[in-house]
Amino acid sequence: MKNLDKLFDPIRNTPIIYFRVIFGIALFIETMSDISSGKVKAQWIIPINNFTYWPFDFIKPLEGDGMVYLFYAMAFLSIFITIGLFYRVSIFLFFISFAYVAFLDQSYYLNHFYLITLISLIMIFLPMNQRFAFDTRLGFSKKHDFAPKWSLNLLRFVVALPYFFGGLAKINPDWLKGQPMTMWLAKSVNLPALGYLFKIPNAGLWMSYSGLLFDLFIVPLLIWKKTRKWAMVVLLFFHIVNSQLFNIGIFPWLMLLATPIFFEHDWLDKFIFRNKLGYPVEKPLFVPLSPVKKNLIIWVLFVFVLYNILMPLRHYFIPGSVYWTEEGELFSWHMKLKDKVGKGKFYVMNMQNHEKRDLPLSNYLTPRQISIMLLKPEMMWQFAQMVKKKYSANNVQVAVLGDVQVSLNGRDFQTIIKPDVDLVTAPRPGWGVDWIMPMTAPLKSIQ
After folding, report:
1. Are 49 and 362 in contact, with CB atoms under 8 Å apart?
2. CA-based angle 410:412:418, to the nearest 5?
3. Does the pLDDT of residue 399 top 70, yes or no?
4. Which residue in 40, 93, 108, 247 has a CA-CA distance of 20 to 30 Å to 148?
5. Pseudo-torsion of CA 125, 156, 111, 85, nearest 10°?
């Protein structure tokens, strides 16, 4: 228990204040970019249907231009977060709003959306408005130079999640054989400055293994002072390459700017203030917490950490390859690990006369939704429920069948779901269903 008491030791709060500022700026850029690019309209206004997340199947987009107004509201909230104005209310409202958007449609799932959701959740409880904040100037929060150690450790833990579990997920047969990285590099040889590197023999293998090792060890190398400088060089190169290879928005820049939180808690003070502006400061005067409050904080931290460790590991206990079945793939930090292409048709059968007809997918879904749905059996199941709902409105009972083929990491196309299974009555995927066909197509050798 004494070791756990160290979680409440006072440390300089500059790292978490710094993170509040860069995170708020990133949120503003992200939300305004989504509005200006037309993404909000394309993803949450135009679609007729949306692919939900269990158990949040009841969530639907706002009507009319409501989603646009919501994004403008999040942009304003991000400004308040950045400057520390009405911080607690602002970060709470942002979390609720962003989590709502993130859980609207699986077609647009992004790992960095999930990361932003987790970070904004924990930020509700962190003392991030006690310095360089309008809240302290207006008297809404007491100015303080210190924070409990657990607040910085929790922030480090969440930021480290994509790195470690992203690396762990790379320990799979395809990645260790250089796929799909070799395929991606072959399409990027004309990139300025970097393209010539991708022509080096076995470049795909080199980058596959270097990416794996980077993800697994970059956080410890950043924390250890002796390796920090070299780790920063590698980190910079890694995120720049990712930003050029993949369309992943602010994610690489946010992770890069977040790096100082892994340094000593007083590093930023020494770097920014250089022993001026009140640094070093006197020892903090904390009001001691009661044992009950300490135990409550410890148990909440334990549950949060345990969830975030077990959630990305659940696919190891589900039959079949997660990259093929997609069961257990969401919220597991599987970032850019596969190259998957799907094609096929769906049919609707009237259960009264057994008449079978092609289903025009464009009557239900956008092109983006169709392309993603053809890769994920759980979304195929949801599509069948959409069709059922439409026909049920006219008191017609139907079955929905699918003839879908998928290619994973350059393999030959293979049927992914049993063509004779009625997706309307089939069990929802999630923990191993028998109507998903096992992957048997072998990985092709790298040329």
Report:
1. no
2. 120
3. yes
4. 93
5. 40
Q: Where residue 290 falls among pLDDT bands split at 50, 70, 90? A: confident
Distance of alpha carbon 23 from alpha carbon 250, whole angstroms: 11
For 273-289, how does the pLDDT look when each residue is reduced to its tens digit (9 = 90+)? 655 545 555 556 566 78
DSSP code, position 342: E
DSSP-based helix, strand, coil % in the chain, nearest 5 = 55, 10, 40
Cα 68 from Cα 165, distance rounded (Å): 33
Among residues 99, 110, 48, which one has the least CA distance to residue 70?
Answer: 99
For tokens 């596959």, name the residue. Answer: 208
Please state, in angstroms and rounded to a whole number, the distance separating the CA atoms of residues 189 and 55.
Answer: 43
Distance between CA 55 and CA 224 in Å, rounded?
41
**Cα first-last separation, the chain:** 57
Read off the amino acid at residue 295.
N
Cα(43)–Cα(212) distance, integer angstroms: 32
Cα separation, 96 vs 78, whole angstroms: 13
HSE (CB half, 13 Å, CA atoms) of 213? Answer: 8
The per-residue pLDDT for 284 is 60
In this prediction, residue 277 carries a pLDDT of: 47
Q: Which of 2, 39, 36, 135 is closest to 81 using CA atoms?
A: 135
Backbone dihedral angles phi then psi of residue 344, each to the nearest 5 degrees = 155, -175
pLDDT of 310-364, one tens digit each? 999 999 999 999 999 999 999 999 988 899 999 999 999 998 888 889 999 999 9
Alpha helices, DSSP H, located in 65-148: 66-83, 87-102, 111-123, 134-137
pTM of the model: 0.91
Q: In what order do the strands lie in the sheet with 398-408?
A: 356-358, 340-350, 398-408, 414-415
